[in-house]
Write a structure and sequence with these properties.
Helices cover about 0% and strands about 55% of the residues. By secondary structure, the protein is an all-beta fold. Strand 4 (about 30-35) and strand 5 form a beta hairpin.
Length: about 70
């Protein structure tokens, strides 16, 4: 199982996947917003989304787990 983590302190602007969705390596799964910039967060591994740990509007810090993929 792989986790997709935030690399910065930001707010979750948009969640692009749901549990059960299939993703390919490099697919954006969440878009963060920081200082009016949109930051796509990509998965490093292909697989199926097994959990989404955030919702739109959540504040996250560096290292916060956003999505699990297996």
């Amino acid at each position: 199982m792989a986790t997709v983590e935030s690399e910065t302190t930001a707010v979750v602007w948009k969640v692009l996947v749901g549990v059960g969705d299939t993703v390919e390596e490099g697919d954006a799964v969440v878009i963060l917003e920081s200082m009016k910039m949109e930051i796509p967060v990509e998965t490093g591994e292909a697989g199926t989304v097994t959990a989404v740990h955030v919702k739109e509007g959540d504040a996250v810090d560096d290292g916060h787990v956003l999505v699990d993929v297996s």
